[in-house]
Amino acid sequence: RQYGSSQCAAHDAGLAPWCDTPVNEAPSWCSKRWCWVSPRDCNVAFEKSMYWQDVELYYSYQTCGDQNSFAMWYCESGNVTQLTAIGVADVVANYVY
Q1: Which residues of 38-97 form beta strands (DSSP E)?
Q2: Is 43 left (phi over 0), alpha (psi -120 to 50) or beta?
C-alpha cells in the first residue's frame, strides 16, 4: 500500500484512528482524495504534514480535485493536543505497510 504517494486517493478511508467508523459517522475528509506533493512543484493549495512536523512533508487535496477539510477539522476538534509520540506511532503503524 502506498499511503499518499504516487496517486490521488482517499488514503484515509477506513483507517484508524478517525476514519474507521461507518461512512456516515466518519469526518468528511476521510473520503476525500489527496496525495503528497513537493512544494516547489505544486501550483495549488497544499499543507505541511501535522503528523511529522520535523520532516518537510506536504500534502494536497486540491491537486486531486478535492477541498482540504482535514486541517480545519483537526485544529477545531482539539486533536492537536492529542498528538503525542505514542499517538504518532499508532497512526504510522496503521498506514505503513
Answers
A1: 47-48, 58-60
A2: alpha
Q: Strand pairing partners for 48?
A: 58
The secondary structure of residue 34, as a DSSP letter, is B
| pTM, to two decimals | 0.73
* CA gap 67, 77 in Å, rounded: 18
Q: With contact defined as beta carbons under 8 Å apart, do 34 and 4 qualify? A: yes
Contacts of 17 (CB under 8 A, 6+ apart): 87, 90, 91, 94
- Cβ neighbors of 29 (< 8 A, separation 6 or more) are 12, 61, 68, 69, 70, 73
- pLDDT tens digits, 54-71: 888 999 999 999 999 998
Q: What is the pLDDT of residues 8-55, one digit of tens each?
A: 999 999 998 889 988 789 999 999 999 999 999 999 999 998 777 788
CA dihedral (79, 41, 4, 26) positive or negative: positive
